[in-house]
Amino acid sequence: MALTRRHVTVAALAAVPVAFSATGTAQAGEQRTLYIAGDSTAAQKYSDAAPETGWGMALPFFLRKGLSVANHAVNGRSSKSFVDEGRLDAILALIRPGDLLLVQFGHNDEKTADPARYTEPWTTYQDHLRLYVDGARAKGGRPVLATSVERRKFDASGNAVPTHGEYPAAMRALAREEGVALLDIQALSLALWQQLGVEETKKYFNWTETEQDNTHFNPPGAIAVARLVAGELLRHRVLAPRDVRRLDAEIPESWITWPSPATV
User: Fold this and answer.
1) Model confidence pLDDT, tens digit, residues 76-96
2) How large is the angle between the packed helices 167-178 and 126-138, nearest 10 degrees?
3) Fewer CB within 10 Å, N side or C side of the chain?
4) Which is nearest to 67 in space by CA: 36, 39, 38?
5) Are 46 and 223 in contact (CB under 8 A)?
6) 181 vs 143: CA distance, rounded Å
7) pTM of the complete model
């Protein structure tokens, strides 16, 4: 975990941030909610899926008390299907001025054979992302875009290989066009997997005796990615230093819990 902490801390301390709402008013001392709209890499997992862990489950460990996380990410969703199922509307019905809407989609937008989920990077993907941006702003919230965390894939020479095609570039371009904070988790996670290497990264993904999953995380992986997200929220001045904690601290795996599906 030392590699992970150093990697994120250097990036997080590269700037001296101040948190602002969508209207430019400081929000550091107020009760706020950070909503997550995303896919299975971020989603809450339950006891029947353990040890699979979404990074959204670990994000609260890095945020101050009073800044709550409402994780609406759901397995298998794309920017399109999340909207079509009414899940964005459900968030927008709750969001208040000063709240944050963190959006990470791409894994399932890439599924060309599934018209319910597929989007084209430079057209329909950007069109759907604008719905999140415009919707959050209309409610006085602040939208934040995050490029998709990378899968675990290496070439024969041991180099970490990007897997998301043009989707990260399309999101970066949209963020510039719309003036939205962009957390480049794709680039940061790719660099982290490169640092860790072929064998060490297996400890971060959902590799078990029965499954070799190079997309979803176990507790160490979810904690590492959540650390990247929190560091980027700080670096891009979405959150103030007082909003973020433990960026350079060891987070025990035992802090991750998987509730029973029956209790949901």
Assistant:
1) 999 999 999 999 999 999 999
2) 40
3) C
4) 36
5) no
6) 8
7) 0.88
